[in-house]
Amino acid sequence: MNSRSSHSVNTVFVLLIFCLFAVCSLLLVLIGANSYRRIVSEMDSNNETRASLSYISNKVHAANGGNVRIETLNGQKMLVIRSNENGREYNTYIYLYNGYLMELYTKADNGFTPGNGDKITPLTAFTMEKDGSELKLSVCGENRRHLSLNLFLS
Fold first, then answer.
1. What is the tens place of the pLDDT at every residue in 132-145?
2. Which residues pair with 76 in a beta bridge?
């Protein structure tokens, strides 16, 4: 009887070690998945923040810089890019509204209403400043990371 009880204790002990190993493995996988999810979220947010500055930079360069102004319309500070197509004047308004970088492309004689246009990317802050031929842009993404860009207009 002594060998049977010893054998039972050994079996229970091996099963407990196996269960402990399984629980530790599961915890390790859950911790790794959570870390991966957080890293991917941070990368997405950083990419969106950088993409917003790149997007604005490309818009300004496409306008050759000469038709770029900073204006305040309806209490909204914005970057206004003027263009002329087929004898008609158009404006592109780029501004921050309700946590999104927005863009509105419309005829110059159409009015501007905050909230009109397309959502480009989520941002918490968008500031702009024009000093002569230099345009200073600064954005803050959802992850509170600030990025700045200085453009020299032609």
1. 888 899 999 877 88
2. 73
Is residue 61 within 8 Å of 72, Cβ to Cβ? Answer: no
Surface-to-core class of residue 78, CB atoms within 10 Å of its CB (0-12 exposed, 13-18 middle, 19+ buried): buried
The two structure tokens encoding residue 111: 């009015």
Q: How do beta strands 146-152 and 134-140 pair? A: antiparallel
Query: Residue 96 is encoded by which pair of tokens?
Result: 């921050």
H/E element, 116: none
**pLDDT tens profile 81-129:** 998 888 888 999 999 999 999 999 999 888 788 888 899 988 999 999 9
Q: Decide if 37 contacts 45 (C-beta within 8 A).
A: no
Give residue limits of the domains in the chain.
51-152
